[in-house]
Structure formats: structure tokens, C-alpha cells
Design brief:
Order of helices and strands of chain A: HH
Number of strands of chain B: 0
Helix content of chain B: over 70%
Low-confidence stretches of chain A: none
CATH architecture of the domain at 13-34 and 48-419 in chain B: Up-down Bundle
Oligomer: heterodimer
Distance between the termini of chain A: 19 Å
Number of helices of chain B: 23
Structural class of chain A: mainly alpha
Strand content of chain B: under 5%
Largest interface: A-B, 30 and 40 residues
Mean pLDDT of chain B: 85
Mean pLDDT of chain A: 87
Largest sheet of chain A: none
Order of helices and strands of chain B: HHHHHHHHHHHHHHHHHHHHHHH
Radius of gyration of chain A: 16 Å
Number of domains of chain A: 1
Radius of gyration of chain B: 23 Å
Helix content of chain A: 55-70%
CATH topology of the domain at 13-34 and 48-419 in chain B: Sodium/glucose cotransporter
Structural class of chain B: mainly alpha
Low-confidence stretches of chain B: 1-5
Shape of chain A: rod-shaped
Number of strands of chain A: 0
CATH class of the domain at 13-34 and 48-419 in chain B: Mainly Alpha
Amino acid sequence: MHIHSMISIWFFIGAILTVYGAIICVANLVLPAPPGVVLSNLHAGVWWGGILFVVGLIYTIRFRPRD
Amino acid sequence: MTPTTTRLFSAGAVDLVVVALYFAVVIGIGFYLKRFTKTGEDFFLAGRHMTSWIAGLSFLAANLGSLELMGWAGSAYQYGILATHWYWIGAIPAMLFLGIVMMPFYYISKTHSVPGYLKLRFGEGARGLSAITFAFMTVLMSGINMYSMALVMKVFLGWDINFSIWVSSLTVGAYVVLGGLLSAIFNEVLQFVLIWAGAILIPILGLVEAGGWHEMTQRIATRLHTTSYTHLWSTLGSFTDNPMGIHWTGIVLGLGWVISFGYWTTDFLVVQRVLSAKDLRSARMAPIIGAGFKMMVPFIVILPGLLGLALLPEKLVGESQALATGGHSYNEVLPLMLARYCGPGLLGLGITALIAGFMSGMAGNVSAFATVWTYDIYRAFIRREASDRHYVSIGRWSTIIGVIVSIGTAYLVPQFKSIMDYVQALFSFFIAPLFGTVLLGMMWKRATPAAGFWGLLAGTVSSVGMFAWVKSDPTALRYIALSPNAKAMAEDMYRALWSWCICVLVTVVVTYTTRPKPVSELEGLVYGVTKIPHEGDVPVWRRPAFWAIVIAVVFVIVNIIFW
């Protein structure tokens, strides 16, 4: 097994968190909360999506494949 | 299982994109890792290259299936905060014991599996028996994960249960067949992160809605007319003072000792992840890292169940009653809470977390099944001499067969009132006696090969016998669980304890009537005749023992806080 040439698992995690964060943040800015959702006034989707995006971006850059 | 289209909430297009992206990524990882999986060591033990963090998170994630997420949230709704015992006293001491005491023997012996260790220590009889019972248990456990998954799809998407079982199972089968344990471990670490990302908002927003922890406990006390649902230890002095109908002896001896130590130190599903570590120090640190995270899991599992008790307007019921009446069961409390707080995208992330839990649990089962089937049944009893490539091929085929058999077992789950009752029953049959055999094998050099086999067999048969006795005559509960008021979970704890005692007793008696192995054959397998490598000159904060003490201190503190 050529372990050293393998892309780090943390890169995959960073990438998917970045994409998820962007989708969730934008969706909650644009779309109204569905009826029945409690505490929608707190806009949890916006800030949680933002956090996921930033953390994901840090991991994506830190563990990106080199050459 | 009755297919249903009842749905709690409609997932929108954004949620479906989030879920679809997840499926694409896990399959993509499987294809990417296939090129790194050539030999048996790669396929079955991920090449033994994993760091302590990856092995530790994978060790925990393999256990943190949707069964854990939904089942224990449901148990928290049913039994209150007592369900936390399965995360704390029912896990932490055993995980630390595995890292500090037992791991060196597993790792130094270079075994591929726990049945493989029993072969080295006791011979083919004990290996064959444990391999067959383990293979049987893993496919049943996979069935539970599938059933949990089907519940998620039913509640959120209104999907046909059969359809969701096949889509999710084939996805897991595909990435495990492609990349073996390496692929399973990579995806488990990814799934661990997604589980937290998707589930952590529920307890945070739930506590905001309830007005804090104190207000939540007040609401539960008002609704149920008792404070016993929010105390961890103070109600365990009597069988009748707590919702589970259990005494502290059942929790400490049945759960904290037999079930917990049995599961965390001998269930190959979790031990396999640690065996993939790159060196002995990483292998010892992995369970300790897992223990640190395990202690935090009640925040995303138990607390939502308690919040459901405090906040949900409807009363949840047992699985069979829910199927009969069209209502919601205990096991659906987590999806119900998710739907309560999550808007566009977040709902998709929450569903993804539950799917990830399902996949990590199922991948853990099928990859462990493939290893035990290939090495401990096929190679041991069917075809001893074949090429490494042949065994990798058998591993891939047994993964596919394991998935298909697991699908059939999913249909057994509704027979049990709660998912976790079903799981604990399985553990008491197979894991409790196995722990007695492995423990005596590792710690007592006098234990003989014949004793290992007969002790394990006696413990397993007696456990199944006790289960059948109570099923045919419910009044027998007073003998097995020491109280006619005991609930199913309490019965499981005591049954496990008795089967462990019978296993140990038979092992000791047979040992003194049969011939032991020469000491020279026990080197690397048994305490007292194995030289443990010294850790070298490393700072104290890098030593596994230091972190084990830190985790143990925190464990004591949290138990006192929630007494």
C-alpha cells in the first residue's frame, strides 16, 4: 500500500463541509423556513452553515493534495 | 415490517441535494481507495497504517450507527437519563481497559481477528465457535441498522421501506467491496464528523426552547409525575424506583462489567479498527481517544430523547403499537426532534447524519463479517492453502453475501418492543460469554484449550436457554432478573451476568481436569509470559496511561454531577 501518496481523509471531510456549509447558509438566506419549524427566528441554518463553511475551508486548504 | 408512506416532514430539493452529495462522496471514496487495496493485509486490516486519531474515531464511529443514534434516543425517551449509563459506565472503563491492558496482547500476537486470537490461545474449537456466533451476530446487527435506516426514510421522505433498505445497503456494500477495511475506516471518520455536524443543533435548540437544563427537568417531572427520569444513580437502590426496573447491581455488574467489557474488548467489530493502527502506541491510544469522544455522545443522543419527553406534544409508544395505530414510536424521537428545528438544508444534513450513522454501523458489521468469514471460517475449515489474492476475492464476495443476508434479518426487528432491547439480547447471548473466555485466556496461563471451548459453549447455550425460559414462562423473570418488575433491558443485563458466570465457572472446572499448554506456547498471548515493549523516553503527556487517567477523572466527575 502506497500510504504516502494517499489523499488525507481530512481533505475529503473539509471539502464536503465546505460545500454543505455553502448550500445550507445560502438556502436559509434565500428560502423561508417550512411551517412548523420551531425557533426559526434564530436563523440557525445561516450561522451553522457559515461555521461549517469556514471550518471546512480551513481543512480543505490545510490537507490539500500536494503535487 | 409494513411498508408505509406516512411522512412527518417533506424534504425539499436542497435537502435532497445534500443527501445525494453524501452518497456520491462515499462511493467516490470507495473507488479512489480501491487502488490502495491489493493484499489481504490491505483489505482486512487497512494495511496496519492508521494513526491513533483515525483508528480511534473509526473505533467509535463503527459503534455510533443509526442504531446508537435512534435506538438510544428512543431509550432515553422510554427510560430517561438512565440510558446514559450505556455511554459512561457501560463504555468508558472498558475502553480504557482495552487500551491499557488488553491491546498489547491483541497487537503483539499479530492476529487478524478476535477468533484468531482464540485460535492461538485455545485452538481451533474455541476459534470456530466464536467465529460462527460472531458471524451470526453481525448479520443480525446489520439488520438492525437497516431497520433504523428504513425508519428515517419513512419518517422524512415517505419512501417505501424496501426501496430505502436496498439503496443504502448496496451503497455500503459497494464501498466496502471496493476498498475493504480501509474504505470502511475512511468513511467512518467522515461519517463521524457528519453525525456531529448534523445532530448537534438539536440539543442546542432544544435547550433554548425548554429554557435550559433545569427547566427541562421540571417539565419532565410535571408531565410524568416523577423525578426519576432525570437522575443517573439515586433511583437505583430499588427495582421499583426507576423507569427501567433495575437495581444498581444490574447496572454495575451486568452492564458495567460483563456487557461493556465484553463488547468493547472482544467484539471484533470495534477491535478490528484498533488492530489497523500503525504501531502499538497508536493502538493503545485509539480506544482512549474513542473514550474521550464517547463521553460526549449523550449530548447528541440522550439529551434529544429527554427533550422529546419535555417538549413533544404527542406521547410516543412501543414499535409494535406504533405500527398498529399509525402513531410514532420511541425510536422515532430523534427524527421528530430534527424535524422540529431544522429548516432547508439543515434537515438534509440531519438526514445525512442518520444515514451516515446507518452506513458506519453497517460497514463496521460487514467488514468484520468478511474478515471473520474469510480468515476464521473459510481459511480455517474450508480451504487452508490458497493465494493471498484468492482470500481477498473471498473477502469481497463474503461482503456481498453478508449484505444480502443482513437485509433478511431487518425484518426481525419489529418483533421487539425497542431496538435496544433486541441488541442487548444479542449481546447477552454471544458477547458476555466470549468476554469470560478471552479474559481468562489473556490473564490466566493455566486455562486450557478444552476449557476455553467448553466454557464459551456453556455460556452461550445457557444465555439462549434463559431467554427461551422467560419467553415461555414470564414468571421466570423473578429468577433471572431477581425481580418480577424488571423490564426487558434489566433482564438482558442479568442474563448477561449469569451467562458470564457460567462461562467462567465451566472454564475453571474444566481447566483443573485437563492439561494446559506449555508456557513457551503462550508467549505474546498471556499476561505474565509476554514482554510488553517499553514506550521509550516520551513525555508524560504523550503516554496512553496519562490520558487514560484524565478520561477516568472526567468520567467520575460527570457521574457525580448527574447523580
